[in-house]
Queue: 2 jobs
Job 1
Amino acid sequence: MGQRFAPYANTLASKLGVEVVPYGCSGWTTTQLLRSVDCEKCIDVCGMENPGLRVALRAGEREGRPYTGVILMAGTNDLADGVAPHDIAANLLRLHATAREMHCRSVAIGIPDSAFCSACPEPNTIRLSTNALLTAAADGVNLAYIDCPLQFDRHNGFWERDGLHLSPSGSEALALGIASDVQQALCV
């Protein structure tokens, strides 16, 4: 498991000049994320607490600072379970629909590459197929899709030792790699 939690949201916020709030549930599948959209407290495998998606968006409204955009990068944990691409994509599309129901623009970041995907053909095929399904669905559901700009390379410093989680420099590279597309998609 990644040891140096460094959300890409911090670099993205600096690059775009807007507030970007990192919410996440490390180790969770898209099914878990979807089932928890209305949960007040979601505790991930690292023991970190965050609200479910709809709860977080409603809290922003109540606090007078409604969210205008949501960026989701999820699906990696589904790969190890061999979840079918259409099921992962369907879960992700439902999560994005939740964001749009809350009047947010929505951006899907494709499932990233990893050592696991590089070494095992089946998870990589699921990853690529899921990303293709998201790409194909994006225009029809008012969703911006951005391919993850990072390709796994054990020697570029972007990955933790486990080859699955991004290092702090990998999170920074991800944010810099998606910033202009996110800016365009979210009109910031």
Note: The radius of gyration is 16 Å.
Job 2
Amino acid sequence: MSFCACLTGAKAGQTTQTEAVQQAGKVREYKPANVTKADSTVNVANKTSNTISTSGTSVNTKPLGVVKRAKTTNSTGSTSNYERPADYNYTDTAVHSGNISPTPNIISSSSYDISILLPFSAMYYRSDGNMDSLPKQSVRALEFYEGVLVGLDYLRNKNVPLNVTVYDTEKKASKAQQITSSPNFSQSDLIIGPIYNKPLKEVARYAQQHQIYQVSPLSPSTKIATNNPYYLVASPSVETHCEAMYDYFSQTGGSKRVLTVCGNSLRENDLAKLFQRLSMNTQAEGNYLNVAHLTHDYMQTEKDMEAYLSPSEKNIIVITSSDELVINDVTRKLNMLRGKYDITLYGMPNWKRLNNLPFDYLANLNYHTSSNFWLDKYSTEHQNFKRDYYAKFNNYPSDNAAKGFDLMLHFGELINQYGNSFGYYLTNGTGVYSNFNFVPTIPGYHSNSVVANPAYLENKAVHILRYTSNYSFEKVK
């Protein structure tokens, strides 16, 4: 049975949104290309999960254990019961600097179990035509899941031995707790999800206790986990975006002066001060810049702002506010000064979700921003994904679908290459849309230095984008 979803309405041969969410709760088997046995389907509308196997085998139900143990084969050919030690020293792993000390054996298994937790809320929907649309959370989960399914097809064609179980969290912490209490959940080699913070925090506690790597696929929150080296944040925090922007403009040629502009909120002020700390922290590396700070006031004139600009240096203006009124006012004043000064504007990554940005001003001011997601519509990899997604779902992929595809393909290939030792190799991964470079971090600490007791691991791979005179973005890093 094929999984087919149309997010904009049903056509002949397609399913409705409601049916698509319900089908997310059906058991399906994914098999190698040379196996022709039909997929088995079981309606589990009142159950918690569905199971997908890329190897043609079913997930074996195993008793709940305190720590995952699996009979494995290491690189020497001998078998062992693999268990991450209780005194696991994360500073010995490759995730910090790319050097492994000591060098781990590649601990492999006949198959690997991946659990995916998403808020479908499938049991609340009926396919009787009484629901024309789905809540945002269900659509978001469904799109991400569809991308995951295409990624699993790619992995199946490579005979990657994965057993994938998908759970519906219903966006509830209590449901997440129920899922983690199921008999076979502790046998997961990797957990992906949930995507909302309350159930995410519940699963993070469980994953830390059972020493299972968990990927937060969409939430960039820095407040989910503490002292948890098994928690991986795939979507970089805004602090990491600011760090990436600073690294980029501090290393481009020429003398510069930096001005941060924020509104009245404490959060915006903290981000502005972060650039000053980054300048001080990188002084020894030769990246020190003079960073001035201005709190926005509507009574300020362009003359007030001009006092902060240099006629002989490049002027880097960083607006840490996401208030459209503040952005419009500051860029209007800067636009009046651009004839006299060399100005480059930097803005926050969430500006892409704003509806009333002054695009003419942005183009005039050489606007730059950051993003962990970049779609090159002319790339062969994107065209292949777009084709395969359309063939599977009769629709074009959303950004959420692309993120699900990238994440599933990356971790599936990582596990296939390194087995249960994949946690040693979390740096320098390249995806079609996003890159993956997980390094230790603690809240308020933004550096690539080794952290002995990481609060969690965060993806530090960020693209730098430039807004052109053609009113489109180009990737510059």
Note: Residues 1-15, 25-49, 53-102, 446-451 have pLDDT under 50 and may be disordered.
